[in-house]
Amino acid sequence: MTLQSDTPAAGFIGRIPVRNIWLLLLYASQLYRELPASRRVALEDAPDDIPDLVAEILANAVERRLRRNLTAGYQRRQADLNRVRGRINLLRTERRQLLQRARVACVFDELTVDTPRNRYVRAALTHVAGVVKEPNLRHRCRDLALRLEMAA
Questions:
Q1: Which residue, of 29, 67, 85, 95, has the fewest CB within 10 Å?
Q2: What are the helix (H) ranges across the chain?
Q3: Partners of 17 in the beta sheet?
Q4: CA 132, 135, 139: angle at the middle one, nearest 5?
Q5: pTM of this prediction?
Q6: Digit-coded pLDDT (tens) for 102-135
Q7: Among candidates 146, 143, 140, 151, which has minimal Cα distance to 52?
Protein backbone atom coordinates (compact mmCIF):
# COMPACT_ATOMS: atom_id res chain seq x y z
CA MET A 1 0.00 0.00 0.00
CA THR A 2 1.41 3.35 -0.96
CA LEU A 3 0.57 6.71 0.52
CA GLN A 4 -1.01 8.99 -2.06
CA SER A 5 -2.55 12.35 -1.53
CA ASP A 6 -3.72 15.57 -3.10
CA THR A 7 -1.89 17.52 -0.39
CA PRO A 8 1.59 16.70 0.84
CA ALA A 9 0.49 16.68 4.50
CA ALA A 10 -2.23 14.04 4.04
CA GLY A 11 -1.78 10.29 3.82
CA PHE A 12 -4.21 7.48 3.21
CA ILE A 13 -5.26 4.64 5.45
CA GLY A 14 -7.05 2.38 3.03
CA ARG A 15 -9.08 4.88 1.02
CA ILE A 16 -9.53 7.34 3.89
CA PRO A 17 -7.43 10.52 3.64
CA VAL A 18 -5.84 11.23 7.01
CA ARG A 19 -4.08 14.48 7.87
CA ASN A 20 -3.92 13.91 11.60
CA ILE A 21 -4.25 10.64 13.52
CA TRP A 22 -5.70 12.45 16.56
CA LEU A 23 -8.46 13.89 14.41
CA LEU A 24 -9.20 10.37 13.14
CA LEU A 25 -9.51 9.13 16.73
CA LEU A 26 -11.83 12.00 17.58
CA TYR A 27 -13.99 11.15 14.57
CA ALA A 28 -14.36 7.65 15.96
CA SER A 29 -15.43 8.83 19.40
CA GLN A 30 -18.99 9.49 20.44
CA LEU A 31 -17.86 12.68 22.17
CA TYR A 32 -16.79 14.27 18.87
CA ARG A 33 -20.32 13.88 17.52
CA GLU A 34 -21.71 15.87 20.45
CA LEU A 35 -19.87 19.02 19.39
CA PRO A 36 -21.70 21.63 17.33
CA ALA A 37 -21.13 21.27 13.57
CA SER A 38 -19.46 24.69 13.34
CA ARG A 39 -16.85 23.63 15.92
CA ARG A 40 -16.14 20.38 14.03
CA VAL A 41 -15.59 22.18 10.72
CA ALA A 42 -13.35 24.76 12.36
CA LEU A 43 -11.24 21.94 13.80
CA GLU A 44 -10.75 20.30 10.40
CA ASP A 45 -9.42 23.60 9.05
CA ALA A 46 -7.07 24.17 12.02
CA PRO A 47 -5.79 20.82 13.36
CA ASP A 48 -3.42 22.62 15.75
CA ASP A 49 -6.43 23.29 17.99
CA ILE A 50 -6.86 19.59 18.78
CA PRO A 51 -5.61 19.95 22.40
CA ASP A 52 -8.30 22.59 22.97
CA LEU A 53 -10.92 20.30 21.48
CA VAL A 54 -9.82 17.35 23.60
CA ALA A 55 -9.92 19.58 26.69
CA GLU A 56 -13.40 20.81 25.77
CA ILE A 57 -14.67 17.26 25.24
CA LEU A 58 -13.12 16.12 28.52
CA ALA A 59 -14.52 19.10 30.43
CA ASN A 60 -18.02 18.49 29.02
CA ALA A 61 -17.87 14.81 29.99
CA VAL A 62 -16.63 15.60 33.52
CA GLU A 63 -19.33 18.23 34.05
CA ARG A 64 -21.94 15.69 32.99
CA ARG A 65 -20.47 13.09 35.39
CA LEU A 66 -20.43 15.59 38.25
CA ARG A 67 -24.12 16.36 37.67
CA ARG A 68 -25.04 12.66 37.59
CA ASN A 69 -22.67 11.56 40.40
CA LEU A 70 -19.17 10.28 40.09
CA THR A 71 -18.29 6.62 39.80
CA ALA A 72 -18.05 5.21 43.30
CA GLY A 73 -16.11 2.22 44.49
CA TYR A 74 -15.18 0.39 47.66
CA GLN A 75 -11.84 0.87 49.36
CA ARG A 76 -10.50 -1.36 52.14
CA ARG A 77 -9.74 0.52 55.37
CA GLN A 78 -8.38 -0.31 58.80
CA ALA A 79 -9.26 1.77 61.83
CA ASP A 80 -9.46 1.62 65.61
CA LEU A 81 -13.13 2.32 66.37
CA ASN A 82 -15.36 2.43 69.43
CA ARG A 83 -17.83 0.07 67.73
CA VAL A 84 -17.48 -2.95 65.48
CA ARG A 85 -17.56 -2.27 61.77
CA GLY A 86 -16.72 -5.01 59.29
CA ARG A 87 -14.32 -7.63 60.61
CA ILE A 88 -12.38 -7.45 63.86
CA ASN A 89 -8.60 -7.65 63.66
CA LEU A 90 -7.97 -9.65 66.85
CA LEU A 91 -4.18 -9.55 66.70
CA ARG A 92 -4.05 -5.75 66.42
CA THR A 93 -6.77 -5.33 69.08
CA GLU A 94 -4.84 -7.46 71.58
CA ARG A 95 -1.40 -6.13 70.68
CA ARG A 96 -2.46 -2.52 71.23
CA GLN A 97 -4.72 -3.42 74.18
CA LEU A 98 -7.62 -1.56 72.61
CA LEU A 99 -10.36 -3.32 74.60
CA GLN A 100 -9.13 -1.65 77.81
CA ARG A 101 -9.82 1.70 76.11
CA ALA A 102 -13.24 0.58 74.79
CA ARG A 103 -11.97 0.35 71.23
CA VAL A 104 -11.58 -2.40 68.67
CA ALA A 105 -9.42 -2.71 65.52
CA CYS A 106 -11.62 -3.24 62.46
CA VAL A 107 -11.09 -3.94 58.77
CA PHE A 108 -13.94 -2.80 56.53
CA ASP A 109 -14.84 -1.65 53.03
CA GLU A 110 -15.84 1.98 52.64
CA LEU A 111 -17.73 3.49 49.72
CA THR A 112 -15.75 6.35 48.16
CA VAL A 113 -15.49 8.38 44.96
CA ASP A 114 -11.68 8.39 45.24
CA THR A 115 -11.35 5.62 42.65
CA PRO A 116 -8.49 5.08 40.18
CA ARG A 117 -10.77 6.14 37.32
CA ASN A 118 -11.65 9.46 38.96
CA ARG A 119 -7.99 10.07 39.88
CA TYR A 120 -7.01 9.43 36.27
CA VAL A 121 -9.61 11.91 35.01
CA ARG A 122 -8.43 14.51 37.54
CA ALA A 123 -4.81 14.04 36.41
CA ALA A 124 -5.86 14.35 32.76
CA LEU A 125 -7.69 17.62 33.51
CA THR A 126 -4.67 18.99 35.35
CA HIS A 127 -2.34 18.05 32.51
CA VAL A 128 -4.56 19.35 29.71
CA ALA A 129 -5.03 22.65 31.57
CA GLY A 130 -1.34 23.33 31.02
CA VAL A 131 -1.54 22.57 27.29
CA VAL A 132 -4.62 24.46 26.07
CA LYS A 133 -4.36 27.93 24.58
CA GLU A 134 -7.78 29.33 25.46
CA PRO A 135 -7.72 30.95 28.95
CA ASN A 136 -11.40 30.25 29.74
CA LEU A 137 -10.99 26.58 28.90
CA ARG A 138 -7.78 26.39 30.95
CA HIS A 139 -9.58 27.87 33.95
CA ARG A 140 -12.54 25.52 33.44
CA CYS A 141 -10.24 22.45 33.40
CA ARG A 142 -8.42 23.56 36.55
CA ASP A 143 -11.73 24.26 38.27
CA LEU A 144 -13.07 20.80 37.37
CA ALA A 145 -9.85 19.15 38.61
CA LEU A 146 -10.23 21.02 41.90
CA ARG A 147 -13.88 19.95 42.20
CA LEU A 148 -12.87 16.32 41.64
CA GLU A 149 -10.16 16.64 44.28
CA MET A 150 -12.60 18.13 46.79
CA ALA A 151 -15.15 15.37 46.09
CA ALA A 152 -12.64 12.65 46.94
A1: 67
A2: 21-28, 30-33, 37-45, 50-68, 90-95, 116-129, 135-151
A3: 12
A4: 90
A5: 0.63
A6: 999 999 999 999 888 899 999 999 999 998 888 9
A7: 140
